[in-house]
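Handout for the seminar on molecular recognition.
Each group receives one record of this type.
Step one: identify the two inputs.
Step two: read the structure output and locate the region that could contact cytidine-5'-monophosphate.
Step three: write two sentences on what you found, then compare them with the reference statements printed after the record.
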Amino acid sequence: MSDVSQNSAANLAETGEVTLSAPCKVNLTLDIFPPRPDGYHDLDSVVAKFDYPADIVKVSVRPGPSRILLLCKDKSLPRDERNLAVRAAQIYREAFPMSSENTLYIRLEKRLPQQAGLGGGSSDAAAVLRAMQTLFGAASEDKLREVAAGIGSDVPLFLVDGMVRMQGRGEQVTPLSGELPQQPVLHGILVKPDVGVPTPAAYAALDSLAGRQPGEATARMREVLHQGTGVEEIAEAMGNDFEPVILPRYPEIAAAHRAVREAGALRALLCGSGASVFGLARDREHARELARQLAGKFPFVKIATSSE
Ligand code: C5P
């Protein structure tokens, strides 16, 4: 985790506030299986977390009426339980009732775009859960993961540091750090055009394709990572089942995908169900070069550096 989260204990002692960095994620692979009877889809995915760009989440608690207040400069964000950060605090409180009345303040510095496929809302929720654990320490790790899965499919992966394999509908998360010779640090670029993709619509579009076969990118990627080979091999192994349905439906995203390729990224890949595109770079300097070329062409262009 980043310095911000490592400092959270010291932070709490000094200010009564827990400050956490909420990283974004990129599904380096995303194999999606046919819909289950409950409507969800089983997935197989290798997910990298990126410490930058990230949201900042600050949580503090004071004696007072039992309520949760979300403070955020971005007025487009809902302040009630439609916001996953608020939902996380609510569910934690329900699962682990507090002995005394208190007011919880969540301050959100929003830097990750919404409906971008970067897991920003899910990461905020996971950060709130971690903060609640620091403040109240009520949950076991297993229970915390169960609570996380109840908030959203992408929340549990943010409770585990580093690169992970995600299965089931998202609730089965295996850290890859222990099994890899070394976890690669990835550099790249994130670009988001001025559109958002609602996740349920993306899954529905996928299901409308007759005879579609799930991809097999995750098995290839795991092999490449286990061999500890270079970033070019990682680029080749990347794959996202959403690309063939989302790119033709959203010309703005297809344009971003093309622009990232033409700028010279080793590989352009749709992030989750969109609307962002990730461009993998050879190294930090290459990522800077991509950013220089793409700056100003899209509303969101950021260099991304993966967590160690
Ligand atoms: O779990 P979450 O609320 O994030 O999921 C949002 C929607 O995305 C679900 O209602 C479902 O339509 C779709 N989804 C899915 N399979 C998954 C994850 C999400 O079909 N594994």
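Reference statements: Residues 39-41, 43, 152-154, 169-170, 199-200, 203 surround cytidine-5'-monophosphate (CB under 6 Å). The longest strand covers residues 41-63.
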